[in-house]
Specification:
CATH architecture: Alpha-Beta Barrel
CATH class: Alpha Beta
Number of domains: 1
Helix content: 25-40%
Structural class: alpha/beta
Number of helices: 8
Strand content: 15-25%
Strand order of the largest sheet: 3-4-5-6-7-8-11-14
Radius of gyration: 17 Å
Distance between the termini: 14 Å
Number of strands: 15
Order of helices and strands: EEEHEHEHEHEHEEEHEEEHEEH
CATH topology: TIM Barrel
Length: 284
């Protein structure tokens, strides 16, 4: 079992710590939207006494279609994230897709995130681990949809070998491929990954995806079951998850990426209050 701290932000995750909330928008659409969502979630978490990290992706490289919206790109995206950090005074989480981007991302993001599809890309894991360790942040690695929970030990080993010393890795559960156009979350997997000695979060937003099954585009984008986000989040926290990863939008149906899996921003207070209560109930 483990706990990690980000001293400069006075937040921690893991054993004996409050439920960590990594939440924001899926992909950055504009600076104004990022600030609106971040400011609202920051206020909710402050009222609940939960540590908050703003999340937004500058690029979504793993798209169903070449025509799908990917985001503003590295330069503009990092500028927006830096501005959110400056104005709201909150830590930042974002995805990295190539080894060449790692240092630039780690200079802005306090949590560098490796997408599930890329969790076995050794060059990326090594570059992200070294850049994150040098910057003093956390590395948040999503377990691939193709991996058993215990096989995530190889990810942890790569990070520890690439950047030896104090641990700074968090693993994230987001479901496993199950049949056609579907993902299923095995809640027992959360405990299995925690046996590796790292904190574990749940990406409840992407766990409800229906890959390649958005009826609005005839399968050219990912569908989802928005109503299942809260179900999976609550079940995962009850199963021992140390943090939650959630994506919101003021008008989810108009979100430019993964709209069917996105939660209305107005639902954040009730959901996070419930998750906090569950977390308190299951912890010794």
């Amino acid at each position: 079992m483990a706990a990690l701290t980000l001293d400069r932000w006075k937040i921690a995750v893991g054993d004996g710590q409050p439920l960590l909330v990594i939440a924001g928008v899926n992909v950055l659409e504009s600076e104004a939207l990022a600030l609106e969502v971040g400011r609202h979630l920051q206020a909710v978490c402050a009222e609940l006494g939960l540590p908050y990290v703003f999340k937004g992706s500058y690029d979504k490289a793993n798209r169903s279609s070449i025509a799908s919206y990917r985001g503003p790109g590295l330069t503009e995206g990092l500028r927006i994230l830096a501005e959110v950090k400056r104005q709201l005074d909150v830590p930042i989480a974002t995805d990295v897709h190539t080894p060449e981007e790692a240092e630039a991302v780690a200079a802005v993001a306090d949590i560098v995130q490796i997408p599930a599809f890329l969790c076995r890309q050794t060059d990326l894991v090594v570059a992200a681990a070294r850049a994150t360790r040098a910057a003093g942040g956390w590395l948040h690695v999503k377990k691939g949809q193709f991996l058993a929970p215990w096989d995530a030990r190889n990810i942890v080993s790569k990070v520890r070998e690439a950047a030896p010393g104090a641990d700074f890795t968090i693993l994230c559960e987001r479901g496993a491929s199950f049949g056609y156009n579907n993902l299923v979350v095995d809640m027992l997997g959360i405990g299995e990954m925690k046996k590796l000695g790292v904190p574990v979060t749940i990406d409840a937003t992407h766990a409800v995806q229906l890959p390649g099954a958005d009826p609005r585009t005839g399968g050219a984008s990912t569908g989802g079951r928005r109503e299942g986000v809260s179900v999976i989040a609550k079940a995962a926290v009850a199963s021992g998850a140390d943090g939650v990863f959630l994506e919101f939008h003021p008008d989810p149906d108009k979100a430019l990426c993964d709209a069917p899996s996105c939660l209305p921003l107005a639902e954040a207070p009730a959901l996070l209050a419930t998750l906090k209560a569950i977390h308190a109930a299951v912890r010794p």
